[in-house]
Design a protein that fits this description.
115 residues; four-stranded antiparallel sheet; 11 strands; globular
Length: 115
Amino acid sequence: QGQLVESGGGSVQAGGSLRLSCEASAYTVCDMGWSRQAPGKERAFVSSIYTDAPTAYADSVKGRFTISRDNAKNTVYLQMNSLKPEDTAMYYCRRRCVKGSAWDWGRGTQVTVSS
């Protein structure tokens, strides 16, 4: 199903913003989303954008993060505002083109938020 390539990570101060991008090769309109993994913690759900359902967000990011997609560019975005130090993590893009199948994953992009 092709690759997922994340970009847009970096280091910001608390209160700042970043926009992550995930470009998908061999793209078709699929369920996509973002998860994150902080040091010493398990990978956790952040947000999903579905082909046939409303977008979903983890409670910890609701009102601060927005997921969107540009089908013409084969890209999904995660706009992150009002960043907090606890948002520091490796952020992974994921895609699922067949309902009920396993998600495909990108290699991740690091986000670091300093206080």
